[in-house]
Predict the structure.
Amino acid sequence: MVTEEMLQEFKQKCDGIYKELGKDMIGQKDVVEGCVIAMIAGGNVLLEGVPGVGKTRLVRSLGKVFDLPFSRIQFTPDLMPADVTGTNIIEKDKDGNSKFRFQPGPVFTNILLADEINRATPKTQSALLEAMQEHTVTVMGESYKLEEPFFVLATQNPIEQDGTYPLPEAQMDRFMFKLVITYPNMEELLEIVNITQKTMDEIAEAACNAKELLRMRETAREIPVAEEVMKYTMKLVMATQPSGDGASETSKKYLRYGASPRAAQALITTAKVKALMDGRYNVSYDDINSLAYPVLRHRIKLNFEAVTGKITPDRVIEEIIHELNQKQSSVLPLLKHKK
Amino acid sequence: MEENYRKKIRRFQRRLNLEAWLRAGTVGVLVGSIGMVLCLLYGRMVLHRIVFTESVMAALGILLVATAATYIMLLPKKKELLARIDALGLKERMITMEELQGEETVIAKKQREDAIQHLEQLDTGQMKPRLYSKPWIGIAVAAVLITVLLLVPVPKNEKEEQTAQNALEVELMDEMIVALSALIKEAKLTEVHKEGLQEIVDALAVSLTPEDSTLTRTAKITMSSKRLDLYEAAEQDKVTMLKQQADNSETAKAEVKSARTEQIRLAQVVQDMKNIMGISIDILNQVEGTFWTPGAPLPGASQEKEETEGEEFPEEEDMMEWEELPEGEEPMEGEEPPSGEELGEHGEQQDSMDGAVSMTGTELIYDPEQGEIGYGMVFEEYYQAILKALTEKEISEEVREMIEDYATTLE
């Protein structure tokens, strides 16, 4: 049961988190906010951006701010699954008998930075599937539970695609958000350069610990969602499915397949966090619409027409939202109204 | 706080009610206009006239009903009202609060407080009425209305035309009766003859009704014309009898002379009356446009009148000369009064109408060069033609009865 104190704590902690992250991250407010929302909601984040825009720095700062153990795996083509999950090693005890002992891999942490995840082979990439979804690791038939909270913050480079292995859809779906880090503007760049002249290390301090983070998650999950908003969310997700009943014209035109039910779950869960972070105790249509981009952009698959027409996933999502709003307001023009 | 909240909600509710009225009114005007167009079309296509007043009344009725029905349909429910308030920037606070009503959790209470707090910051004026903004609908309705009024022709209404024609015919009949009565009144005839002729005219006046068809009227006039002929023939018969019975005394001669003078005057008046009737039948046929000629004699008689117009009737002195003529010698045409020799086998006066045809209107029954024919010569053929027409032609019951009566009087 959520208490008044928990609500106040949520607000205070959020303010603290943003304040500390602001010390290391200049600009990129949407990306920072997305990461914080995903972490509070308990989801994994895929960060996409060209080299040098601060992906790794953001992840390290998050680790510091949330005061959580942090591991980094640099994904390369020769990286093996055992390098990620850990493996059983033979060890002799005091009596001289040999026995297997599980040596945990870097995945056994709270925040895992999977750097350039698309450079590893699909086999190694798949090693993360179970960890990302069930927060467990199974090695030689034995399952090991990961410590909560557990997040995977993966990065990938949109350029230099040679020798990379695009993430399979199953893995993509396990990322709650895909956040795109863009180049900083002039002012931001100037500030970044100034800060890093003093030190390259992250200067952010812990603003929240694991327990508090879990409590914040618990608090956010209690935020109510109106039935109409819930229905709207489901319609939005269904509108991305080109062969579904609620398919939008845009999805029929540009998509091969749409978002899974996991996307709907992610939308509602993260919208609750966003609402509470904004000081609201309910989810709004705007929350859903703004979160639709990071939640859906990696879950929808563009068709050949969209690719050749250089239509981006964000553009498709924008069109779907627009179409859905139009439809909502024109079903019963005498009664409905445009949102 | 709760009271303020309710007041605020009520204010928003009133605004939405007003909006619903305005939108319902728009729908009402639209539907009413369509109804008016349909009424006008109905009037033009079915009733054959512009039913403008009725259309306006119908449009007003439809407008009121449609407005009321639409208003009931548009009347916002509480959830819709709250959704509209949320659309003013409350970010779904109101609809969530509505759903959380009754819950006493910390989150529900906080949410309620937050929603009410934000609602208080709202001004009811922010809720602008959302009206229909489709001017093309109004333009389309107006265009259709104008098209209906101006371009769609009013088809001819046969019934109305018939009514108008009938009114004209009734008026014509009245004028004819007045003219006939005036003619009789002014004629230099004895009162007995005046009364006799007036009786025929009165009988005609009584028989003519506003419900009569053109055909019936023509037949009735023709029948009266024949009655005039009969009346005149009977008078002629009387004069002939008087002449035969008279001795050579001066008194008898004077009596015969006086009777013949009276008979000649009667013949002239009868001729004038028949001319009036002939003209009336001509006009009747022109009004109807069918030029049916049940008995061409009457129109012919009018021609005769035109031909003889200006000629003066012989004075009494001239008539004396006729008396002096040797027996059997016929006087010149146009001067001679009818004589006993000219009567037919039934003792009736011969028909003296030029160009006369039989009832069928096709068969000539006399030599037009001669210009005269005895009534007795044509009677049998005339009677047979009537019987043939009664048995073979399509004649209405009313006219049939009248013709039969007429034929009976001939016997």
